[in-house]
Write a structure and sequence with these properties.
Order of helices and strands: HHHHHHHHHHHHEEEEHHHHEHH
Distance between the termini: 35 Å
Number of strands: 5
CATH architecture: Orthogonal Bundle
Helix content: over 70%
Strand order of the largest sheet: 4-1-5
Structural class: mainly alpha
Number of helices: 18
CATH class: Mainly Alpha
Largest sheet: 3 strands, antiparallel
Shape: globular
Number of domains: 1
Low-confidence stretches: none
Length: 435
């Protein structure tokens, strides 16, 4: 793959796409440091420092540090992800949305439009909850976080945070369309990666101060290397179903007769399950963290990474989204019909319904194994990091997202290179025939 990526310099269009992606991600990172008006940032940082170890760390990780800065991008891209989850769930239950999903490009555009409306609505709800809660919060020294309490601050915060999320949504969609890779995933990826130097610096300061032992850091470093190796190994793993194509005579020519395979990934859902699961947890948790009601405070106390209740809920949501996303994106019936249409069959399995059942059975086993793998990667390192009291949240979820998105983006770059090479071969063939 690395040798193939070296050919990027030979393709100007691919260079433009990569440069465009990098520039838009740079715009996102600049916006992370633009503060929301009406906030005493010193008091807010002191409050977040005092609340270290809560769900704020996870929320700040997905927001790329924008949440602790309480910038215009404080909500991050998570409302958009929450909205897309809701639309995908409704697509299964609402006939109108189901029909739209089967209408091709026009239907997908309509669903995307609904997702955007949902993003604005969820952002306004979260913005209101955060603004209302901040008015009743103070730093450990007693300094108020909000400079001027009132409805003007609430409306201004709602408009600012909603506009920031809408802009991030546009950035992500534009990167997907005109850049390289999945824009939404790359925004989360950029936020996590850009915080790594600061996290490493803080860790070094703690080591020099004697608050963290060298042995603990070595153990965590080894764990991170092992986790990255496991992610690379499993994400590239496939279950190849052999497919035989029967010989067909068309006119005077014979077609088919070759043996190929149908590749099914072990983790076909990729990094989507942990992102979706985190989004589902963080939406109500954001409201609960800033609310003043006792029962909501009690709920937010359970939703802390490392707590037993949080990890159980997180694993359950990962399993759900692994199966749900796989069921939405991979259709065994369509695969079986396409194979039958072109004279293909799985050796020992009857074409049609039996083939679909066979593929579905294998897919269920693979998805179950993939869900176990994702759960272990996301939960176990986070528990260990919580036990060692590491002062930043960079657990298995972050590693899975970083490695998974990097592999997916590199794969898309490689596919562009292969496409251009294939087009070059065709042009050379045409020139050779003309000569």
């Amino acid at each position: 793959m690395l040798e193939g990526l070296g050919g990027v310099s030979k393709i100007p269009e691919l260079q433009r796409r990569i440069l465009f992606t990098v520039l838009l991600l740079a715009v996102y990172r600049i916006g992370v440091y633009i503060p929301t008006p009406g906030i005493d940032n010193v008091a807010l940082m002191a409050h977040f420092e005092h609340a270290r170890g809560s769900l704020f760390g996870l929320m700040d990780m997905f927001a790329g540090g924008a949440f602790s800065n309480f910038s215009i991008f404080a909500l991050g891209i998570m409302p958009y992800i929450s909205s897309s989850i809701i639309l995908q769930l409704l697509t299964v239950a609402v006939p109108h949305l189901e029909r739209l999903s089967k209408e091709g490009e026009s239907g997908r555009r309509k669903i995307t439009q609904y997702t955007r409306y949902g993003t604005i609505g969820l952002s306004m709800i979260q913005g209101f909850g955060i603004a209302w809660g901040l008015q009743h919060m103070a730093s450990p020294s007693g300094a108020p976080i909000v400079l001027q309490i009132g409805w003007s601050f609430i409306f201004m915060t709602i408009i600012t945070l909603t506009s920031g999320t809408a802009f991030l949504m546009w950035l992500g969609e534009t990167i997907t369309e005109k850049g390289i890779g999945n824009g939404i995933s790359l925004i989360i990826f950029a936020g996590i990666v850009c915080r790594m130097p600061a996290a490493i610096g803080n860790t070094y300061q703690l080591i020099t101060a004697g608050e963290l032992g060298v042995l603990v850091i070595l153990l965590l470093s080894v764990m991170m290397v092992l986790v990255i190796g496991a992610i690379v190994f499993v994400e590239g793993g496939q279950r190849r179903i052999p497919v035989q194509y029967a010989k067909r005579i068309v006119g005077r020519k014979m077609y088919g007769g070759q043996t190929t395979h149908l590749p099914l990934k072990i983790n076909s859902a990729g990094v989507i399950p942990p992102i979706f699961a985190s989004s589902v947890i963080m939406f109500p948790a954001t409201i609960a963290n800033f609310a003043q009601e006792g029962w909501l405070k009690k709920i937010s106390g359970y939703l802390i990474p490392g707590n037993f209740g949080y990890e159980i809920l997180y694993v359950a949501l990962i399993f759900f989204f692994c199966f749900f996303y796989t069921a939405v994106t991979i259709k065994p019936d369509d695969m079986a019909d396409n194979m039958k249409k072109f004279g293909g069959f799985v050796p020992g399995i009857r074409p049609g319904k039996k083939t679909a059942e066979y593929i579905e059975e294998i897919l269920e086993r693979l998805t179950f194994s993939g869900a176990i793998y994702v759960s272990i990667i996301c939960v176990l390192p986070s528990i260990l990091i919580g036990q060692f009291n590491i002062p930043f949240y960079f657990g298995g979820t972050a590693l899975l997202i970083v490695v998974g998105v990097a592999m997916d983006t590199a794969g898309q770059i490689e596919s562009h290179l292969l496409t251009r090479q294939y087009e070059g071969f065709i042009k050379k063939g045409h020139l050779a025939r003309r000569r």
